[in-house]
Amino acid sequence: MTETRPKSLEDTAYRRARFANLPGGAFLEGAWQKSELTLEVRDPEDGVLLGRVCTSSPHQVRAAVAHIHRHLLEDGWPLRARRAALEKAAVLLGEQSERFANIIAAESSKTIREAEREVARCMETLRLSAAASGELAGETLAFDDSMAGAGKIGWFSRKPVGVVAAITPFNDPLNLVAHKLGPALIGGNGVVLKPSGRTPLTGLAFVGLLLEAGVPAGRIAAVVAGPGVSEALVTDPQVDLISFTGGPATADRIAAAAGAKKILSELGGNNATIICADADPVKAAEAVVAGAFGVAGQNCLSVQRVYAHISVFDEVLERVVAGTRALRTGPKLDRGTDVGPLITEAEARRVEEWVEEARAAGATVQVGGRRRGAFYEPTVLTDVPTQCRVIGEEVFGPVVSVLPFIDIRDAIFAANDTEYGLQAGVFTQSLDMALAVAEKLHVGAVVINETSDVRIDSMPFGGFKKSGVGREGVKHAVREMTEPKNTIINLTTAGAGWQQLAGTTERTKA
Fold it and tell me: Per-residue pLDDT tens for 30-50?
C-alpha cells in the first residue's frame, strides 16, 4: 500500500475547522434545531470528531411532514420561482465549492479530488433540475378520437405528488441528495431529507444553501437519525412518495412498512465489463482501473467483474495489475492520493473477509489483498470460483475480479448471472458485436468502449432485477415525482354560447 501524507497536520485541521459552523443539526418546521446534538460525525480516516448533529424523534419527523404538507396546501410557489431558486443554488454552490468539497472529503471516503468532482456534478444537477421545468407542460387530449369523447375537450398537466421522503447514502453525499431534492422541488413538491448518518454534514449544508437560494422553509426539512425515525418517515400517511438509494434488504423493509405508496429505489449493482478479442487492451485496462477503485470501490457503478477474451486476457490482466499497483492509497486531503479509506473499519473488515473467502476457495490475489484500519488496498483477483461472494454479491469495496472467456455467449451469460442489473461495459471495435452484446445484457445501461462506471446526470438512471425500481436522472425523476392531472370540459352542457358555436361548426362542415 503506497501512502502519502498531507503537507502538515495544521493544514488538515484548518480545512476541517472551516466548515464546523453549520447552522444546526436538523431542519424541522422551518427552523434549525440547535439542541439534542448527540450524534457524532467522525472522519473515517482517523476517527477525528468533525461535528455533532441531531438525534431526532418520530414525533419530530411527523411534525416536520405535517408542516410541509400544510404549506403545500396553503402557500403557492410558482414554477418561475422554483426555477430561479435552483438556478441560484447552482451559482451559490459554485461560490462555495471549496467549502463543500472539504466537507465531503472530511466525512466520507472521497479524496479531495473526488469531492471536487462531485461538487461540479452537483452544480450540473441543479442546473438540469431548473431546466426540467419544461417537463411540467402536459398536453392536450384528443377526445374527438373516441366515441366517449364526443362533445368534450381537455388537457392534462403535471402536478406534484405532494411530500417526498428522500433517503440518501454516504458514498455521494451531495450529488445523490441533489438528484432527489432538485427534481422534487422543481416539480412543486415538498421534501423531507434523511441523509446517511455517516455523512450528514454535507446534506445539512446543502439544505442551508437551498434555503439561501430561495427555497421556502415550508418546502423542506432534514432529519438525520434517531430511534424509529426511518420508520416514522416512510410510514407517515402524509408522505406521498419515497425516493431511496441504498441496499435491497433495506428497500424490502421500506416497502413492507410503507404500504401502498409510490417508491423509487436505486439499489446498487454487481457490474460486469466484457473485453472482446478485437478490443484495445491498453484502453480497456486503463478504464477498468479507473472504474473499479473510485471512492474506494464504494460506488454502485463500480467495475466488479471483468470478462476478457482468452486472446487478450494476459495483456489485460498485466496492465490492470500494473495500473492498480500504481495507485496511491492514503490521506484524503492529499492531492496525490487516489484511494482513501472505506467508510468504516467494519466495512474494510467485511471486504477483507470476502477476499479471504475467495482466496481459500482457490482465487489468486494478483495485487493488494491487505487491510490497515479502514483502508483496504486496491485488489485484483483471478481464478475466482463463481460461488464466492466477490462474484455473486455487490462487494462495495476496492476489489475487481478478472476472468477469461472463449465464447462470447459464455461471457454474456456470466455477466447476467447475478441478482443485479444496473450497468455493464463492452469493449470491441465491431459495431455489430457491440450492439449484439448490448441487446443481450439485462441491465439498465450498456456502455460501449467504456466500463459500467459512467453516469450522465440527465440520462434515465436505474436498473433491472434487484438494482431498483423506477428511474432517476433529472427530467425522468421529475416525471416520477409528478402525476398527470386531466381537465375535461363537457361542451354539450357548457351553455348557449358554446352550443351555438358548435352548431355553426357543424353547419360549416356540411
Answer: 999 988 899 999 999 999 999
pLDDT, one tens digit per residue, over 453-476 is 999 999 999 999 999 999 999 999
Q: Which residue has the cell 478478472?
A: 402
Taking the C-alpha atoms of residue 452 and residue 274, their distance in angstroms, rounded to an integer, is 10
- In this prediction the pTM is 0.91
Dump pLDDT digits (tens) for 246-289: 999 999 999 999 998 999 999 999 999 999 999 999 999 999 99
CA 101 centroid distance within chain? 17
Pairing status of strand 364-367 against strand 379-382: antiparallel
Q: Are 396 and 297 in contact (CB under 8 A)?
A: yes
| Grid coordinates belonging to 173 | 453525499
Q: Are the C-beta atoms of residues 110 and 198 closer than 8 Å to each other?
A: no
Q: How far apart are CA 412 and CA 273, in angstroms?
A: 10
Torsion of CA 293, 295, 296, 300, to 10 degrees: -80
For 99, counting Cβ atoms within 10 Å of its Cβ (0-12 exposed, 13-18 middle, 19+ buried), the class is middle
SS3 assignment, position 299: coil
Question: Per residue, what are the HEC states of 20-32?
Answer: CCCCCCEEECCEE
Amino acid letter, residue 392:
G
How far lies 409's CA from each of 278, 401, 423, in Å? 16, 19, 18
Distance, in Å, from the CA atom of 109 to the CA atom of 298, rounded to the nearest integer, reads 8
Give a three-class secondary structure readout of 192-261: EEECCCCCHHHHHHHHHHHHHHCCCHHHEEECCECCCHHHHHHHCCCCCEEEEECCHHHHHHHHHHHCCC
Residues serving a catalytic function are 266, 300
Pairwise CA distance, residues 465 & 444, whole Å = 10
In angstroms, the Cα distances linking 215 to 4, 220, 272 are: 42, 8, 41
HSE-up (13 A, CA, CB side) for residue 143: 16
Cell digits for 67? Answer: 408542516
Are 337 and 111 within 8 A, CB to CB? yes
**Strand residues in 23-68 grouped as ranges (E):** 26-28, 31-33, 39-42, 49-53
